[in-house]
Amino acid sequence: MASKRNDDEGGMMDYFPTELLENIFMNLSPSELAVVQQVCKRFKRIIDCYFRDENYWKRRLSSDYPDICHVVLRKCKPHMPYHNIYKSLTLWPRFNQVTEVQNSFACPTTAQGEVKGFILLKYNEMAVHTHGGIYYWNLRSLHPITRGPMYGNYLKYYESENIIVILGMSLNLFVQWPISPESVEYNEMRLSRVRTFLVHNRAMYIVFSDDEISFCQLYTSNYEMRTLQKMRDMVVALGFSNGHLNILTYRRNLYRLCNDEIVFQRALDLQCNMLELLRRYNFLENFDWMTFFRWVFLANPTICRGPLQDITLVKQYGDLFFVGTLWGIVRIYYKPYVNGELDIFSSRPLKEYNFLKTFRFSYPACPVLSIDVVEEHGCHRLYIAMPNGICVLNFHYNPPFLYGPLPMAEM
């Protein structure tokens, strides 16, 4: 009688070269590897080496979360292991099983201190845009830092590690950026009659008050403004997707910049899913939602009623969507798709908050102005800006989720 096969034996698999198995395993997702490593001890040894390799998790982050990978890495704690970042992102589908801790900061004492928005800079640093200027805060202590503020009431503000863009109330634009990524010398540019702008990588696209669109390449010693085209209709939003600038006009016409030429793509007719098209062309975060509801009301007046009436902000974060309204409602959705298209009006949120009731604002309205996320080990930190301050929601997972196997169904 044949003896019982030892667990170390893999049959024919024992004769497979390790290099060949590694090439096969390299193409499997973490959830698939978690299943395969149970086949035999040899597979487990090989896959355990993968799971201990930070380069593997770095590749998985880039391949599984291509849209938000660079954003997540920029905002998370320096030297945070890629494995922890990846696992934090996979925990979002279990978001309804977290423990919440709320806090707030940047609460104004005068009208000049009312918040207009914020930008997350490097880890634990935030630039808060108020009616009185730009102030910098430490997110660990929730106290102002020693960096000097920029005083003034600005219409729009953008800042990253290497560039500052300020659009004043009189439509004057100020831009400051280094001559090269390694340089300590800065270029400055001042323009007038600017309605809006969009910064993407090392390029800035500018819309003037007469709807002329221009382009400027940053991080060069000799910058030059180049006019692309003067639009016949008022530009309401700029977006960037698939390597192209997208332009949306008030008459619901959608254009794309291709080979330095602005080409008409399609019209957003009243029968299409306008929300899905705004997502596809990356307009969600750069859009006037009052305009959206004017368009939608023409097709279906009933859709503008209910908890999502008067949307002020929609932020996409991978498969998550954060929706804020004029009345302090914040809804968090995970994969709110119907027939493969975005539909927050028919989808059920993971969580919903009403900050107008929770914080008892003295204002008649409580518009949600900015939302952003920072990933921590076993924790998501959500920042929500409203005129009366910035709310911090810390979502902690219980130890079984942190130290157990990677969730398979969601990956």
The backbone outline, from C-alpha atoms, is: globular
Overall CATH architecture of the largest domain: 7 Propeller
The residue-averaged pLDDT reads: 84
Counting H and I runs of at least 4 residues, what is the number of helices?
Answer: 10
Our count of domains comes out at: 2
How do the helices and strands line up, and which of them pair or pack?
Elements (H helix, E strand, L loop, with lengths): L17 H8 L4 H7 L4 H11 L2 H11 L4 H7 L6 H9 L8 E7 L9 E6 L4 E6 L2 E6 L4 E2 L5 E2 L2 E6 L4 E5 L4 E6 L7 E6 L2 E7 L2 E6 L3 E6 L7 E6 L4 E7 L2 E6 L3 E6 L2 E7 L6 H7 L8 H11 L11 E7 L2 E6 L3 E6 L2 E2 L2 E2 L8 E4 H4 L11 E7 L2 E8 L2 E8 L2 H5 L8
Antiparallel strand pairs: 1-27, 2-3, 3-4, 4-5, 4-6, 7-8, 8-9, 9-10, 11-12, 12-13, 13-14, 15-16, 16-17, 17-18, 19-20, 20-21, 21-24, 22-23, 25-26, 26-27
Pfam family, one: F-box-like
Protein name: F-box domain-containing protein
Organism: Danaus plexippus plexippus
Task: Describe the structure in your own words.
- With 411 residues, the protein is an alpha+beta fold.
- The chain folds into two domains: 16-52, Monooxygenase, CATH 1.20.1280; 94-397, Methylamine Dehydrogenase, Chain H.
- It is 19% helix and 37% strand.
- It has helices spanning 18-25, 30-36, 41-51, 54-64, 69-75, 82-90, 274-280, 289-299, 355-358, 399-403, and strands spanning 99-105, 115-120, 125-130, 133-138, 143-144, 150-151, 154-159, 164-168, 173-178, 186-191, 194-200, 203-208, 212-217, 225-230, 235-241, 244-249, 253-258, 261-267, 311-317, 320-325, 329-334, 337-338, 341-342, 351-354, 370-376, 379-386, 389-396.
- Helix 2 (30-36) runs antiparallel to helix 3 and helix 4 (54-64) packs parallel to helix 6 (82-90).
